[in-house]
Amino acid sequence: MRGKNFQAWDKESAEQGKQTETAKSTGKKSALWKGDQELDAEEKLVSQIRGFAEFLFSMGWLCCFSSSQLGGGHSSSSSGKGKNLQGMIRFGFSLVKGKANHPMEDYHVAKFVQIQGHELGLFAIYDGHLGSSVPAYLQKHLFANILKEEEFWVDPCRAISKAYEKTDQAILSHGSDLGRGGSTAVTAILINGIRLWVANVGDSRAVLSSGGQVRQMTTDHEPNTERGSIENRGGFVSNMPGDVPRVNGQLAVSRAFGDKSLKSHLRSDPDIHNTNVDNSTEILVLASDGLWKVMTNQEAVDIARRFKDPQKAAKQLTAEAVKRDSKDDISCVVVRFRG
């Protein structure tokens, strides 16, 4: 289905209302499986902020209240949730800092916006390495660059591909400010609740559950699977005992934004897939490899299904990854369709 032009869009689109909240972890231990009926202090705070956001929106002071505006990958732990105006599609997110001795490098986006009479759900995970500058830049600019492309409204695939390329070029041109690091990316754009476009570079992944079947919507870009491309570009893939394959002995993904010193051997063009969203569509999970290293696609969906509240589902996924001794930063967004 990749590369097909977007056809008919539903012309009915309601005014957007979306809210999220980012809160620091209290550090207290809790039961692994939380019940849906529990309303903790964090959720009460979410409710208060939501009410304030709705007031601002009603006064015309706020066009959207999004997780990306409230914060990115700065806190050691954060979570939040929101929904579209109709309340039929809800999302939650959770980020937990890994065990490495460096600041959080995972960033996310989760929000609904109104553009040209259409409702767009924008969801993303950006997993940085060698610093947080590049994922922070992606959080601020990648979706904006996609939606700036005039072709987006007639050919979303081409628009997404061009925006990924232009964004990577911009990151490389700002190397003195953004540093030598890089980032993976997985982005999902939900158009009017009926069409889903997913793109990725690197090993951040999106998984969709529909009609009881689990489908991976992304491609893991790993050095071993793209060895030919790397070698054709003058690079090599190392396979040291006890370590994962790496590009030139350094990077564990074969496609990424940034990474100026390795860029001649890397690609930043995304794999892009799209699908219809209908009454059989259940759950979409986007996550960094901190989750996927310790959990299968099926396991992630099975855990998410246990919770009607997608924020609790996202928090449970990150908690389970920690329990399974994931050492990397862990971030995920869970989108629940139609209840």
UniProtKB/TrEMBL annotation:
Metal-binding listed as a keyword: yes
Gene encoding the protein: LOC111312393
GO molecular function: metal ion binding; protein serine/threonine phosphatase activity
Bias type Polar residues, positions: 16-25
Enzyme class: hydrolase
InterPro entries: PP2C, PPM-type-like_dom_sf, PPM-type_phosphatase-like_dom
Compositional bias annotation for Basic and acidic residues: 218-230
CDD domains, A to Z: PP2Cc (cd00143)
Native source species: Durio zibethinus (Durian)
Family affiliation: Belongs to the PP2C family.
Name this protein carries in UniProt: protein-serine/threonine phosphatase
Catalytic activity annotation: O-phospho-L-seryl-[protein] + H2O = L-seryl-[protein] + phosphate; O-phospho-L-threonyl-[protein] + H2O = L-threonyl-[protein] + phosphate
Region annotated Disordered, chain positions: 1-33, 212-236
EC number: 3.1.3.16
The entry's keywords: Hydrolase, Magnesium, Manganese, Metal-binding, Protein phosphatase
Domain PPM-type phosphatase: 90-337
Cofactors, names only: Mn(2+); Mg(2+)
